[in-house]
């Protein structure tokens, strides 16, 4: 009976997404929302330029380095490197919740960015400070909302919630210390994004409001999601279907940006984490596993885990990408799906070869789509494999090596 009920609600969720994709495409929902929101947001970006210039009048090298470094610490690449360490330290529940939360934040924030398609502050006259390659890529995205602000609100807020309700730390003292720290961090991040010329004030306000809304929603469903991931019915098949449909539910921006690529990566990460945890929860991720800074896991053991784990997941990432680059084009050609590649497979890049993809049966069915970019599938498989290795393959190696 429980399995039947699960199948019903899971089918309803996936079916609802399909209906939404078809309906939104038919009614041009994205274009209508953009035509309504974009002029208003763009106006506020323009009138916010003098305020940004006033802040940048006080620029000097130390503040450039401070705010650039602070932005890196709360960026998606930082979380991508930090979350495996959290899993390997024994804090599995916190790690999987923060992974799924940042995937949700990334998807929601980037969807809003590409629906509105509002510009960042014009440069010049604003001086845009991009100290890293990641920041240069971020500058290619649209502005509203500020992803750094949104992610900081959600992840720091959830971390504080976890400390207060799932640890032995005194709740009163943690609240008095934690809440001001979270507020200070969010304030600094918001100011840093304006100082660096990456966002207007309207982007920061939107990031703050959307972040608070997402955090409130997540805190109301996090236990249900966690229980489903570790002990639910049809978890892997449902999440695989959800991940696949979310790729199609993503809105089309006014011009292509890296936002969809970022979402694809974290979509794959979420699927890999859910798959690995579902398969190995009782072995590696229950509440009874050894944790860092306890008698069961000394710092040297954790250091050994890191030395084994990091190279392993990088090897899996490389192998997953190579396997996907070989299998996905073969499967697509077998099914008659017209394909292209933006960067991963040069011989499938029309700009390199000058060849137009051959028309197949699926192209006739979907006449608005010239061809499908296999880079999306390759990227998705690559990060699914990487995330699975973090929670399944690498912990198995730890067991084998007595770590």
From TrEMBL:
Q: Does the keyword Nucleotide-binding apply?
A: no
Designated gene of the protein: LOC107492726
SUPFAM superfamilies, alphabetized: Acid phosphatase/Vanadium-dependent haloperoxidase
What family is reported?
Answer: Belongs to the type 2 lipid phosphate phosphatase family.
Know the name of this protein? Lipid phosphate phosphatase delta
Which Pfam families does UniProt cross-reference here?
A: PAP2 (PF01569)
For this UniProt entry, the molecular function terms from Gene Ontology, in alphabetical order, are:
sphingosine-1-phosphate phosphatase activity
Subcellular location field: Endoplasmic reticulum membrane
Q: Which residues cross the membrane?
A: 7-27, 65-88, 174-195, 201-221, 228-250, 299-319
Which UniProt key words apply to this protein? Endoplasmic reticulum, Hydrolase, Membrane, Transmembrane, Transmembrane helix
- Tell me the superkingdom of the source: Eukaryota
Q: Which CDD domains match?
A: PAP2_SPPase1
